[in-house]
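Quick one before lunch.
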Amino acid sequence: MAAPTPPPSIPLVRRGEPSDLDAIRTIQKASPEAAHWDVSEYLHHDLRVAVHGARIAGFLVTRTLAPGESEILNLAVAPESRRHGVARALLAAYLRHVTGEVYLEVRASNEAAQEFYKSLGFKAVTQRREYYSSPMETAIVMKFHSC
Ligand SMILES: CC(C)(COP(=O)(O)OP(=O)(O)OC[C@H]1O[C@@H](n2cnc3c(N)ncnc32)[C@H](O)[C@@H]1OP(=O)(O)O)[C@@H](O)C(=O)NCCC(=O)NCCS
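Model of the coenzyme A complex:
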C-alpha cells in the first residue's frame, strides 16, 4: 500500500523584496479576481510574501491609513497552491502586527475570497455600487477588528 501523502508544510511568511516582483507578477496575472496594479508599486506599501520551499506561493499588500485603521490592498495565491493555508498564513502574519480596524473591498462575485475572509473573522459592513470597472461591479466592504 502507498504511504499516505504528508500534509503540506506551513508556508514561511516574510517581507517582500524587489527580487520577488517577477513571481508576484506571475501570480497576479494568474489571478483575474485580484487587483491588477504595476507590481513595483507594492514596494511602496507593506508587502509580504509566502514562501513554499524556494517558491513564492502568494503575496499580501497592506497599508496603514491612520493610527488604528489599515486596509488590505491586494492578496493572491498561485492557483496551484490554493487551499493549502497560504493566504491564511499571510493574513495571520499581518494581523499579528496590526491593531484596530482592517478594511478591504472585494468584488461581489468573488465568493471564494469572501468565504476566505469570513473564515478569519472579517464581516461584510457595506457595499459600494459600481465600484469596480472592467467589468463594472459592486464592491463588498469587509472589516476586521484586531486587538
Ligand atoms: C482567496 C484566496 C486568496 C484564498 O487563498 P488560499 O491560500 O487558497 O486560502 P487558504 O487555503 O488559506 O484558505 C483558508 C480558508 O478560507 C476559506 N476558503 C479559501 N478558499 C475558498 C474557496 N475557494 N471557497 C470557499 N472557501 C474558501 C476556507 O475556509 C479555507 O479553509 P479550508 O481550506 O480549511 O476549508 C485565493 O483563492 C486567491 O488567490 N484567489 C484569487 C485572488 C483573489 O480573489 N484575491 C482576493 C482579492 S480581495
